[in-house]
Design a protein that fits this description.
With about 110 residues, the protein is an alpha/beta fold. The chain has one domain: Roll (Diaminopimelate Epimerase, Chain A, domain 1), CATH 3.10.310.10. The protein contains two helices and seven strands. Strands 1, 2, 3, 4, 5, 6 and 7 form a seven-stranded mixed beta sheet that branches. Strand 6 and strand 7 form a beta hairpin. The protein is globular.
């Protein structure tokens, strides 16, 4: 198995180990469903976000709990988008707002970053 970039991010908190943790797996487009589920179970977070595509307009992602795939995940979305912005994937000028798409297998929604 190839190496994957993995992060843990605490949503809803500016303190380490506060809020609600989410796992983030980058470049996961080649992972089969069963392996995504196993990885999410191993990470053990309430949600693990598997990034399966990123472009200038947004991100394609799949959300898994330790037991099943979620069609959408609020705290996973907050964690993922904050992490992507902090990692420089989506840039936002100070005082500005940027809207990007969050695409899952069952939903596409707009997310405002500021």
């Amino acid at each position: 198995m190839k190496p994957y970039r993995v992060a843990l991010f605490d949503a809803f908190s500016e303190e380490l180990f506060g809020g609600s943790v989410a796992g983030i797996i980058c470049d996961a487009q080649d992972l089969p469903d069963e392996l995504m589920q196993q990885i999410a179970k191993e990470i053990g977070a309430p949600a693990t976000c598997f990034i399966v595509g990123v472009d200038d307009c947004g991100v394609e992602v799949r959300f898994f709990s330790t037991v099943k795939e979620y069609p959408m995940c609020g705290h996973g979305t907050v964690a993922l988008m904050t992490w992507l912005a902090g990692d420089g994937v989506f840039t936002v000028d100070p005082g500005e707002k940027r809207v990007v798409e969050l695409r899952t297998p069952s939903h596409t929604t707009n997310v405002a970053l500021q």
